[in-house]
Amino acid sequence: MAASVDASGVPTINATVGSEQEKQRLLDLLAVKLGLDKFQAKINVDPDTKSAAWLDKLGALTPVLTQPGAQVRIADDDVEVSGTAADAKFGWLDKLKALFGTGWNVGMVGGHTAPLASVAPVTLGKPAVEPRCASRARRRQVRIREPRLDAESEGG
After folding, report:
1. What is the CATH number of the domain that holds 79?
2. How many angstroms separate the CA atoms of 60 and 134, rounded?
3. pLDDT tens, residue by residue, 111-155
4. Using H for helix, E for strand and C for coil, what is the string for 99-117?
5. Less Cβ crowding at N or C end of the chain, within 10 Å?
């Protein structure tokens, strides 16, 4: 599961669950906790995916899922935060460590507050959050201009 919250506090949830029942449970929980029109979700079903143990924690995750700029990724027994969720002044690392308890690894992405590269593109027409490394690569691109051809440069 990956969640990214836009500047207005609307989360986009991307997840793969093991059954249609888990998918419906996730959508129902999101609707109850956040409101029907207060989130975007792209939920895939893959029967080879193990049961979503984090689903039982979703209610307690609601505050971080509405914090503008927050990003949370849960995979297997790892919980990673970035963006504003990794900002020490909000205390999310300690809160999530207490919420998930032993057996879960809770930390910041790469030990710093870089955006999650694994957050999938947003559905329903909102622009995707671009990973920091992609924006750096784009800035480093060199523009090559084609030479101008006109009558004077052709010698004629």
Report:
1. 3.40.1520.20
2. 32
3. 443 343 443 333 333 334 444 444 444 443 444 444 445 555 455
4. HHCCCCEEEEHHHCCCCCC
5. C
Rounded distance between C-alpha atoms, residue 98 and residue 86, angstroms: 15
154 belongs to a structural domain: no
The residue behind tokens 């971080």 is: 64
28 part of a folded domain = yes
Q: How confident is the prediction for the chain on average, in pLDDT?
A: 77
Domain range for 55: 2-140
| Among 155, 6, 3, CA closest to 75 | 3
Residue 88 lies in a domain: yes
Q: Summarize pLDDT for 20-39 with one digit per residue, the tens.
A: 999 999 999 999 999 988 99
Q: Assess if residue 63 is contained within a domain.
A: yes
Verdict on whether the full-model pTM lies above 0.90: no
Q: Could you give the C-alpha distances from 58 to 46, 63, 89, 149, 150, in angstroms and in order?
A: 20, 10, 22, 62, 65
